[in-house]
Request: fold
Amino acid sequence: MKIQSQILVALGLGAKRNWHIFFAIIAGAIVGALFPAANHPTVNEIFTFAGQVFIRLIQMVVIPLVVSAIIVGIASLGDGKQLGKIGLKMVLYYAFVTIAAVVIGAVLGGIFSPGTNLEGYISPQQAMEAQQQFNATAAAQKENITNMYLNMIPSNPIHSLANGDMVPIIIFVFILGCALAVIGEINRPVVSFFESIFASTMKITDWIMVLAMPGIFALTAASVSNYGLSVFGDISKFLILIFVGFILQLTVIYPLLVKLFSKLNIWSIYRASAEAMMVAFGTASSSATLPVTIACCERRVGISNKICSFVLPLGATMNMDATALFQTLCVIFLTQAYGIQLDFLTIVMVCLFAIVASSTCAGIPGAALITIALVLKILGLTPEQLVQGFAILFTIDRIVDMTRTMLNVTSDIVVASVIADNENEIDRELLSNQETWKEVV
Reply:
């Protein structure tokens, strides 16, 4: 399929699957402009309430989604052989691109300070409350650093679950997942239970996303009602930084990975996997794109089924480097908008938890804003406290979601290609000869 046709496919899928979200943003902006908060306070309160309901529903699924995703993902690595050489390379390469992504996000956010443009749109009272909460959390952590690290190890995992203490939860769940992966088939009852939890949580997420149109409409209308249409101009700097980060990831980090660890040509990989990249853009779902991703890798890139069947499914559920970049930049953006100053060590913690949060994202549209609550938790903050800032994020998330999904899928393909080259499991002739490629879409 020619590149022009691929772009048309992507745009067509994007318009078909996401028209209601774009309509909600446009309609919300128009209605918000027609009903300014100063003249129609009751209407604004209705919009704000509806938007908060949508955000609360999203918060509801965070813990079960994180717990089940980690356990299922680690346990699916299988026995010791699969946890061996190929598994280690996969983890190292995914770590390489993801660490690079969060560093890019942190540097862009720190240098260009996109959130400072939004300070005028945040309620002074909410900003003060968020600052006080952050300062209290930071003071408690600095007062006794030993206890801070000690408290990361859960003495009672059930208590941590009840309190929503995400760091102890993740540590316990990670250890449990590793144990389940090692003990073999005897783990099936427990793993099956968490597979059911994961599937159920994803179904609940699907139901919540049915409310995405009215939810985003309400959030957009509330923002414009409070601040006017100028809010879109003031977030353009933030939006540009996101896409700059994505471009750096695509044109610098992925080529660097291929150059350092293989003898492949990155542009040949991009050309061979273009259809998977375009479908990912159109669907905004790495899980929905997975069959096309596997087909591209086997029929065009020339990767063996052995590598594809192991690396790509795990990548579609756990490797979300573009999401990690986005979440890092979002947290910095939100804290700047609320007048919260982050020191270097706190930014490092944000980056680390963005890596964890991104790896627990379901491969479905809108998942990044669900798990961003995990990153905010280490700052003592919640999406509910930052509802005005979150409302702004939701107005731009869909187009960003489509782009970051494309990068996440591209990252999976690049890592699979490098591993296949390392293991002599790639057909170089097929990769370099377009005339032998089979149709994918």
Summary: The CA atoms of residues 259 and 417 lie 12 Å apart. The first helix runs from residue 3 to 34. The radius of gyration is 22 Å. DSSP finds 21 helices and no strands in the chain.
